[in-house]
Amino acid sequence: MKITIIILDGVADTINNSCLQKSFIPNLNYLASHSLCGLMYPIKNIAPESGEAQFSILGQNLKNYPGRGPLEALGLGIELKEKQIALRANFAKIKGKKILNLRENIPNKSIIKKLNQIDKDIKIIPHNVYRAVLIVNNASPNITNTHPNYIKYHNISKSINGPKIKKQCKGDLKTVQKINSFISWAEKIMKNQTILIRGAGSKFKKLNNMRGWSIIADMPIELGLGKMLGMHILTRKNEIQQIKNTKSNLYIQIKGPDIYGHLKDCKSKIKEIERIDKLLKPIINIKDRIICITADHATPCSIGIHTANPVPFLIYNKQPNNIREFTEKACSKGLIIQGKDLLKTINSTT
Known about the structure:
Blueprint (H helix, E strand, L loop, with lengths): L1 E7 L10 H4 L3 H8 L1 E7 L8 H8 L10 H8 L8 E12 L2 E4 L7 H7 L6 E7 L2 E7 L12 E4 L2 E4 L13 H18 L2 E10 L10 E4 L3 H10 L2 E3 L4 H7 L3 E6 L1 H7 L3 H14 L9 E6 L16 E6 L11 H4 L3 E4 L3 H7 L2
Parallel strand pairs: 1-12, 1-13, 2-15, 10-11, 10-12
Antiparallel strand pairs: 2-14, 3-4, 3-6, 3-9, 5-6, 7-8, 13-14
Helix pairs in contact: 4-7, 9-10
C-alpha cells in the first residue's frame, strides 16, 4: 500500500501540559485507537528547526542537510550559484540592543528597495509575514546565527531559550563584516527594526532519492525539501481528496499549530487542533493507504519555542496497540522511536 505522512507542525507540547489533551479531537482519537501509536523524538536530544526535523523524518542523513537558508531559497525557486550563500531571515523589532518582537511584519516595498541598495552583494527577499531569505555573494557559510532562539550546531540549528538581545554574527571574517555592515545600515533605514539571520548554507547537490513521493506544503522550507529530494509538488486543495486520488506516496505539512505555540496562545492552538481534527474525519474511511500522523517537533505554549520533547505519532490501517487517544501521555505507552526510524517503522508494518 502507498504511504501518506501528515505533519502537524508544532502540535506537541509536554506530556503533562498539552493542548492536545485539552482539545476535542474525536477523529484523531478514533484514528489512534485503530492505529499503531507511540512517541517519536524527531532528532534525539536536539530541539530542532522544522527543516532539519523533517529531513530526518524523511529518512535522510543529517550530514547531507544543506542548511535552512539554501532550502528556503530553493523553495522560492532560487538555486544558489558558486560562492553564494543563503540565510533564513526574520524582521524583528528592537529598542537599543533589546529585541522586543522576534517576528515583526515585513516592511513596505520602498523600504525593501532601499535595503537592496545597501550592498550589491546582498539581496533580501521577503516572502511571508515576517520571513525573508538573504542571498549573499562572495561569501562563506561558516558563520553563526544571530537569531537568539537558534544556535548553530554543526550544519543544523538547535532551538534554545536565549536572552532576547541583538548580536552580530561571527565566523569567516570577510563574510561577517559584509553581513554585519548590511544589518547595521538596514537598522538605520528601518528604524527600531533589525534582521535576524540563521541557517547559512551554500550550493548543494539535490539528492532526488524520493521520486516516488509527492508533497503538499505552504512554506518555502518544506517546498525546498521536496525539491531537494525529487518529490512532485502538489497544489494545496482538498488534501483529503488528494490522499484518495494521488497514486504516489504523499507527504503533507500543516503549519497552523506551530504558530500559536510560538505565541504562547493555547486557546488558539486548541481551536486550530480542533479545526484540523474535523478536516481529518474522512481519513477514517480510507482503507487502501498507510496513514501516519505526527509532528516535526514540539512547540509548547508554556515556553513558546521548539523543544526536544517527543511528539505523538499514529500509523493507521495497521495492527493497533491499544492506545485510545492521540496525546503525548497516551502515546507514551506505545512505541518509542527516533525520527530517522519513522519510515522504517511504517514500512515494517506494511
